Structure formats: structure tokens, C-alpha cells
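so my prof wants the structure for this chain in the C-alpha cells format not the other one, which i didnt know existed until like an hour ago. anyway here's the sequence
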Amino acid sequence: MTTPTGSLGTVVTVTANPSLDRTVALRRPLERGAVQRVATMTSQAGGKGVNISRAAVAAGVATIAVLPSTDDDPFVLELRAAGITCHPSRPSGPIRVNLTLTEPDGTTTKLNSPGAAMDDEHLEALADTVVENAREAAWVVLAGSLPPGAPAAFYAVLLSRLQSVARVAVDTSEVPLAALVETLDAAAPQLLKPNAEELASVTGGDAEKLEADPALVARVARGLVDRGVGAVLATLGSRGAVLVDSTGAWHAKAPSVAVASTVGAGDSSLFGYLLGDLRGLPSADCLALAVGYGSAAAALPGTGIPQPDDVDAAAVAVIDLSST
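here's what i got, hopefully its the right format
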């Protein structure tokens, strides 16, 4: 673990619905209704924002994880032991447990529980904690699902509060993503990170066609940039990722890796982009670093968070799509 220096700026991550992630690696392909032996089982404090904070600590970037929990919860203690500064807000119940099943060929099945319901008082406390910690941040990352009880527009409203405070990256899906896109004219993030399915859900496209056609992804993402989003980083699984911002559009091909688990790969990709930005790299190089991080994560078992030495951005081929 690299000691964070803070010289690149602080990344504040927000995990509104954290989870204790248990990963079960199977010895053979999953068979419904059968009894199967487990190769390994791991458990760790998780959630999309937490994963990004883990990657930040590994890369020597200062980070603060904001999440609903008690200060002495084993979840928080585990994160602090890993070098992550935690600023919890008052929880409404216990942290949920998510179960991931991974097969020998890398196929991943996730069983996610909903989490404890939060009322307006708990949500306001969480939002206030985020804004308070964002004042000295280089980036604030709003990541993952919302807990039961949270309005669909929670991220959109929080984004409006953060607009004049810090740059904001958002990685969410389904109703919270739709609510945020609906209000882009009022407040837009500096970075939006959908996958093909999520991008299709808010643009009316076809997820399979998008994943197979980076040029189409670039054209569709351009519409979100035209509405105020600073940059769209669209991850396409084994096909790499597409980045669109005000200066151009690029596709990065993922290097060939033996996939162990895709859990956390998108989170690592997002951090790779942020790391490139914090280093002052050009957009295309930020994209290469994002895909390098995502590919390195996919090669690790469980919710694998790459160390910087695991990442080979030089192996990532970047194609300029600006003229397409």
C-alpha cells in the first residue's frame, strides 16, 4: 500500500448504499438446483465509492470515503485499517450484504440486497457530510445505487449543491441515472461513467449495438456532452471504453487478459480516468489509464483493486473518433 501524499488532490467518494461484499469462487460452472463445491470465499467492505477509495490509496492519492455507518462499525474499521479516511454519517440500519458468484471462465453472477431504508433526516445528514468534506476536494464521486427510501433525484439534488464546491463524477444506474440526466440543464457532472446498458437506458439506444460500435457510442455520448456533461466515459467490457469531451472523442481497446472477475472493473476504470486527470494528462491518456485500470481489475479475483504496478496503460491502443 502506498501512503497517500495528497499532492494530487483529494478524491471524496460517496457510497450511499455500502455493502459487505462476499465473493464465492466456484470450481465449475454454476448449475441451478445443484449442490456445488466452493473453491474460495472472500469478504470485504465494499460499494462502488469504497472501491474507488481503495484504488486511490493504492496509487498514493488522498481520499475520503463518506457513507452511512457508525464510527465504530467493523465496516468502517476495516476501511481505516486499509488506509482510507472515513467520515460516516448517521445510518438508518445495518450495512447490507451482497453475494457474488464467479465461475472458472470469469462469468459473474451478483445477488445484491437492497440495504436499510433511509428517511429524509438520514439523507440530509448524508448530503451535509458530503458537502462539508467536498470543500477541499479535487473530485467528488457519487457512486452506486441508492438505499430504499431515497428519492430518485437524490444524486441530482446533491450534484446541484456541489456545483460550486468541487468537480463531480457520477457512476450510477437505473432510476437515479435517469433522474440525473433529466436535470442536466440545471446541473451537470464533470464526468459521467455509464456502461453500454446504462447509456442506452438514458439515450433510447440499443445496448448491444452500442457495445459493438464505439463510433455509435461516441455519437450518442456527444449528446450528453452537448447538454453540459464535462466528459462521458462509456465502458464497454472487453471492448474497452469510449471517452467523449469538449475536445474530442476516442476509443481505447482493452488489452487481452485472462478474466478472473469483472466485479469492480468499472470502478477501477473510473479511478484510472481520475488519476490521469489529477496528473494533468491529455484526455486520450486519461482514457488509456482508465482502460488499463479496468483490465487489470478484471484479471484479479473477487472485487480486485489493482495496484499501480498491475496497470499497463502503454498496452492500451487508443483510436481518435473525433471525425466519425
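also thought this was worth mentioning. The chain has one domain: 10-29+38-320.
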